[in-house]
Design a protein that fits this description.
Order of helices and strands: HHEEEEEEHEEHEEEEEEEEEEEEEEE
Helix content: under 10%
Number of strands: 23
Shape: elongated
Length: about 375
C-alpha cells in the first residue's frame, strides 16, 4: 500500500512540471495506432485493432495506459479463457545480444490476479493476457481493463487498458527483471471485446506512457508522454459502375462476297471515392480490378467482349502511407497494421493529464473494398 501511495504522489507531483520537461521527450517517443480488426461496413461496428511502437533507442517502457473513447462498446462478461484476438510483437533481447525477437500469440481473458493488479496499481474490471511465444518460451503480459474515473469519464473516456512491463536493462538476476532482458518495441492485437461505434463521428483515443530510468528499473514520471490515435468513422468506399453497348461494323470479303460483320462489346466505366466520417481521408490509394485483372485506379474504363461478364472490385488502402507496426514476420500488406502520421500538430492535449505534453497522433490504416457485377451485352 505504501508503494502505491508513493507512486501516485510522485506521478501527481510530476505532471505539474511536465510541460517544461522537453529534454525527457527526446528519449521516449511511443506511437499509438488504433484501427479496425476487419474492413468496416456501412454503419460501423466491428472489433478494434490496437498497435504501439517504441523506438529501439528509447528508454524502456514501464507503464502504458490506453484510453477507450466513449461510444465504443466494451464487453466485460466474456468467460476466462476466451480468445479475444491474435497478437504480433517484437522485442529486443539483451540476453541474446540485442537480437530482435518476433513474438506471436493471442489475447485471452485471464482469471483475476490480485497480485498483478496490485503490482500495476489497478482496480480491474477484468484482466486480459497477452500470451506471447518466442524462442520456445512463453511470455505473459497482463492487460488490466479498468473503469474510467469520474474525471476521465467527463473527458470522454469509458475504460482504459493498463499494461505494466518489467525493466529489461537492470543486471541479470535482479528480481523482477524482464525475461531475456526483453524490451518491447512493438505490438499489435485485435480485441473482439471492444467494438467500434455504429454512429458516425470522430473519436480520439489517447494514451499515457511512462518510461523507466535507464539501467535503474525505477519509474521516470517526468519522462511521461501522451500520444493519440484518431478514428473518423465510418470509413467507406463508394463504387459507381456504368455500362454502354458499343456496336462496330467491319466489311469483310467472304467467298468473294462482301459481308458486314457486326461486333458487340460493352464499355464499362467506373469511379470510386473514399470517405471517413463523410470527409476525405488522410491518404488513399485505390486499385480497380475486373475479373481479377487490374483495369485502373480510382476511375477508368475497359471493354467486355460480347456476352462476357465480370465483377468489378475497387480496393482502397486508406491512411497507410507513413509506416506500419513491425511484426518481426515476413511483410504481409494484407495483415500488417499501417498508419498515417498526423504528428504533434494534430495532438490535442488532454486535461486529465494535467498539462502533460501531447507528443504524437496517428490515423490507423485500413483496407476496404466494394464490388459490382457487370453483365455484358450480346
Amino acid at each position: 500500500m505504501r508503494k502505491t501511495i508513493r507512486f501516485a504522489m510522485l506521478l501527481g507531483a510530476s505532471f505539474a512540471s511536465l510541460a517544461f520537461a522537453g529534454t525527457a521527450l527526446a528519449t521516449f517517443s511511443p506511437k499509438l495506432i488504433v484501427s479496425s480488426a476487419t474492413p468496416q461496413a456501412a454503419g460501423g461496428g466491428g472489433a478494434v485493432r490496437i498497435g504501439a511502437i517504441v523506438g529501439a533507442t528509447d528508454d524502456p517502457t514501464a507503464r502504458a495506459s490506453i484510453y477507450v473513447p466513449t461510444g465504443y462498446q466494451v464487453n466485460t462478461t466474456s468467460a476466462v479463457g476466451t480468445k479475444l484476438g491474435d497478437v504480433t510483437a517484437t522485442a529486443a533481447a539483451a540476453d541474446l545480444g540485442g537480437a530482435v525477437l518476433p513474438l506471436t500469440g493471442e489475447l485471452d481473458v485471464a482469471a483475476p490476479d490480485a497480485a498483478a493488479a496490485a503490482q500495476c496499481q489497478t482496480t480491474d474490471v477484468q484482466m486480459w493476457n497477452l500470451k506471447l511465444t518466442a524462442a520456445g518460451q512463453t511470455l505473459n503480459v497482463p492487460v488490466h481493463l479498468v473503469q474510467a474515473s469520474s474525471s476521465e469519464s467527463a473527458s470522454g473516456y469509458s475504460y482504459k487498458l493498463v499494461i505494466c512491463l518489467p525493466p529489461p536493462d537492470v543486471p541479470a538476476g535482479t528480481p523482477g527483471r524482464a525475461q531475456f532482458g526483453a524490451k518491447l518495441l512493438s505490438a499489435t492485437f485485435a480485441v473482439s471485446a471492444i467494438t467500434q461505434p455504429t454512429a458516425s463521428g470522430d473519436f480520439r483515443w489517447t494514451s499515457l506512457w511512462t518510461p523507466y530510468n535507464p539501467g535503474k528499473g525505477t519509474l521516470n514520471p517526468a519522462g511521461s508522454v501522451e500520444t493519440q490515435s484518431v478514428r473518423h468513422l465510418p470509413t467507406q468506399i463508394k463504387l459507381d459502375v456504368t455500362k454502354k453497348k458499343v456496336t462496330t461494323s467491319k466489311t469483310k470479303r467472304v467467298n468473294g462476297k462482301k459481308r458486314v460483320i457486326k461486333t458487340v462489346r460493352t464499355l464499362v466505366k467506373f469511379s470510386s471515392t473514399v470517405t471517413e466520417n463523410g470527409a476525405a481521408p488522410g491518404s488513399v490509394v485505390i486499385t480497380t480490378t475486373a475479373a481479377g485483372k487490374k483495369v485502373g485506379g480510382a476511375s477508368g474504363s475497359f471493354y467486355l467482349a460480347s456476352g462476357k461478364s465480370a465483377t468489378v472490385k475497387a480496393t482502397a488502402v486508406v491512411d497507410s502511407d507513413t509506416g506500419n507496426v513491425p511484426t518481426g514476420q515476413p511483410a504481409n500488406a494484407a495483415a500488417d497494421l499501417f498508419y498515417h502520421s498526423l504528428d504533434a500538430t494534430a495532438c490535442v492535449k488532454s486535461a486529465i493529464f494535467g498539462g502533460l505534453p501531447c507528443a504524437d497522433a496517428t490515423l490507423g490504416g485500413v483496407t476496404i473494398s466494394a464490388t459490382s457485377a457487370v453483365k455484358g451485352y450480346k
